[in-house]
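Protein record
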Amino acid sequence: MDQKMNEKNGRNIIEVTNLTKIYNGKVKAVDNVSFAVKEGEFFGFLGPNGAGKTTTINMLANLVKKTAGSAKIDGFEVARQSDEVYKRIGFAMQEVGLDETATAREMMQLHGRLYHMPPSEIKAQMHKLLKLMELERVADKYVSAYSGGMKRRFDLALSLLHKPKILFLDEPTTGLDPHARRMIWNHLKQLNKEGMTIFLTTHFMDEAEELCRRIAIMDKGKIVAEGSASSLAKKYRVKSLEEVFLKVTGHSFQEEELNANSTDPYARIRGV
């Protein structure tokens, strides 16, 4: 990986301490997890389906309520100071949820107003992000007409509209062709180079190795390995991150299937 690190004085911008999530009083999806992410870091969070990684990222974004432990974003406790947390994060989920009866420009204007952004700033950010994501020519077309790659790029643009300090990405390139994946990689590298902290979950080993400065691997609700791709390979005496993953989890990514019982990302609305 050739991107330059942007960590600022070693300050932790994400701090997770003994974070736990138990469903139905018995299913421990996240089991006493602790880790930290430096400001300006590109951090990868890997694991087999059901490992607890999506539940963890949803707790960090306050979409799922924790059972125990602590999660802080930029010094603010997620559960108690959620308004401050929301100002600082962008979140692009595994499933793209867009209003297909609106245009990109209309949706960006609405989101900007919801974030109480001044009209001049909304306009400036729209221009910048539509250009960055190569969506200028379709900005006034209905989202229903967009290709899968366009929708992914637009979802990412929306998550960046309010200039978040931290960007959470849950499987951002799933289902995209190689060209679209490479395009999003380049956008993410540039954002990180400009100082944005990025927290990425992915099922693609090449994606993690290409983008992430440091990686944590989760299995059965616990973090089982953490470090750079090269340091992990050296530690476990293997040649690739794929082999590290297989060694610490007993799974390979080729074995992975979609999880029909995955956590509802909007469970917070129902008080789960």
